[in-house]
Structures are given as C-alpha cells and as structure tokens.
UniProtKB/TrEMBL annotation:
<protein>
    <recommendedName>
        <fullName>Signal peptidase I</fullName>
        <ecNumber>3.4.21.89</ecNumber>
    </recommendedName>
</protein>
<feature type="domain" description="Peptidase S26">
    <location>
        <begin position="10"/>
        <end position="168"/>
    </location>
</feature>
<keyword id="KW-0812">Transmembrane</keyword>
<dbReference type="GO" id="GO:0005886">
    <property type="term" value="C:plasma membrane"/>
</dbReference>
<dbReference type="Pfam" id="PF10502">
    <property type="entry name" value="Peptidase_S26"/>
</dbReference>
<dbReference type="GO" id="GO:0004252">
    <property type="term" value="F:serine-type endopeptidase activity"/>
</dbReference>
<keyword id="KW-0378">Hydrolase</keyword>
<dbReference type="InterPro" id="IPR019756">
    <property type="entry name" value="Pept_S26A_signal_pept_1_Ser-AS"/>
</dbReference>
<comment type="similarity">
    <text>Belongs to the peptidase S26 family.</text>
</comment>
<feature type="transmembrane region" description="Helical">
    <location>
        <begin position="12"/>
        <end position="30"/>
    </location>
</feature>
<dbReference type="GO" id="GO:0009003">
    <property type="term" value="F:signal peptidase activity"/>
</dbReference>
<dbReference type="InterPro" id="IPR019757">
    <property type="entry name" value="Pept_S26A_signal_pept_1_Lys-AS"/>
</dbReference>
<keyword id="KW-1133">Transmembrane helix</keyword>
<keyword id="KW-0472">Membrane</keyword>
<feature type="active site">
    <location>
        <position position="39"/>
    </location>
</feature>
<dbReference type="InterPro" id="IPR019758">
    <property type="entry name" value="Pept_S26A_signal_pept_1_CS"/>
</dbReference>
<keyword id="KW-0645">Protease</keyword>
Length: 179
C-alpha cells in the first residue's frame, strides 16, 4: 500500500512540475501565435504558425526590421505581427511617392511588397518618443500599422516578443529573417 501511495504522489509531483515548467516557458520564454491576414506578405502568410521569442527583449531593445508581436488595443485577444521601421527618438515620414524617411534620410530596405500608396499619419513627420516604435507590414498597401490612427506608435511595454521561428506550414519551417 505504501508503494502505491508513493507512486501516486510521485506522479502528481511530476505532473505539477511539467505544468509549472510549461507555464514558465510560455510566460517568459516563448509563445505560439498565428498570422491572420496578408499584411506581412511575402515574408509571412495567412495562417502561418510562429513561435515568439519573449526573452531576448528582456536583455536588448528591438532593432530596425525586427518582426514583432503586440496586442491590438481595440480588440481583446487580437495580436498584430509587424516589422519595426522607426526606433525611439527618430522622426519617420513617408512622402507621396512612397519613400520612407528616417530623420530626413531615405530608408534603404527591400521588405515592402510594393510602392506605398497611402502614407497615412506619416505624411507628416512623426517624432517617436523614448519608448515608441513605428511599425509597418511588409504588404504596405494592405496593412493596418503605425500609419493608421487605430494602431499608431507602439510602446516598448506593449511588445510581447520577436517572431522567431515559423513552424507551419512545414515546407516553410525555419528561423525568420529580421535584418
């Protein structure tokens, strides 16, 4: 009888340890998320499944071109996946030809799927605060991002993590390119 009780207690403790470990991993290290929509095409597609790296930003700041995940402020349990374009303290502007300017200089990048047709809020210079980031989807003409007043600049405290690995579909499995 003692052996059965010991075995039951041992199994319960093992299950609790696994649950605690899983909780700690999901809360502090990584998290699975799903891409909804086409705003990050061609880099990410609708229904792609990603693993977020939630730990690196505890030791370093997001960098330009990182793909980040943050909550949409007007809809619960809705998260956006976007690319960092502007960093804290910088001034971002998009002209009517679709050029992105950072502190008055054209940003050299090739993530945008096509020429930007709608500069939105960035038609006027936007100076980012000490904890703000300007983000855009790679599919620039089909993305609700920092150009849209409903999204705006993203505060550092709202960034959940960096998109790290695409786990689905399997034929596109791999670590995501940020820089």
């Amino acid at each position: 009888m003692k052996n059965v009780v010991k075995e039951i207690i041992s199994t319960i403790l093992y299950i609790l340890a696994v649950l605690l470990g899983t909780y700690l991993l999901i809360t502090f290290v990584g998290q699975r998320t799903s891409v909804s929509g086409s705003s990050m095409e061609p880099t990410l597609s609708n229904n792609d499944q990603l693993i977020l790296d939630k730990i690196s930003y505890r030791f370093s700041e997001p960098k330009r071109f990182d793909i980040i995940v943050f909550p949409f402020q007007y809809k619960e349990n809705t998260y956006y996946v976007k690319r960092v374009i502007g960093l804290p303290g910088e001034t971002v502007q998009i002209d009517l030809e679709g050029n992105i300017y950072i502190n008055g200089e054209i940003l050299v990048e090739d993530y945008g799927k096509e020429k930007i047709n709608f500069p939105g809020l960035a038609v006027e210079p936007i100076t980012l605060g000490d904890d703000e980031y300007f983000v855009m989807g790679d599919n620039r003409n089909n993305s609700s991002d920092s150009r849209d007043p409903s999204v705006g600049n993203i505060r550092r405290s709202n960034i959940i993590g960096k998109a790290w690995v695409r786990i689905w579909p399997l034929n596109k499995f791999g670590v995501l390119k940020h820089q």
